[in-house]
# Entry
Amino acid sequence: MMEKPFFENKIAIVLSENLAPWQELNVTAFLSSAIASHFPETMGKDFVDASGVGYPGIFRQPVMIFKSTPAELKILYKKARERGLNIGIYTKKIFETQGDQNIQAVAELNEEEQDYAGLVFYGKRGRVDKVLEGQKLHP
# Structure
């Protein structure tokens, strides 16, 4: 059996508990892309199967997914900001927009007014764990 690697940093996504299943998947995919696009060290090497067919790499490490109430999401966001974590957001307003309209949807509101569908945190494992203390993993 291969030894499990230790990752100094952690990726964690927290979804609002009031999303439809398709929305949970959509938000998870978009939030994952925020980390992949800004932190290349999170990405593994490309795969090549025994036939020589290549496939794009995926994250090198697990992505932990949690579920919280909308009120808890606001608290988690604040805690993550206080601890200096990298934060990606997906707001409920983004469900109504596409492409660059997403940027405008976020820009229209200040951070206290955002209605989060989900958040992604990336940073030192201990800091991420502290922010997520008491949160339950997505079932």
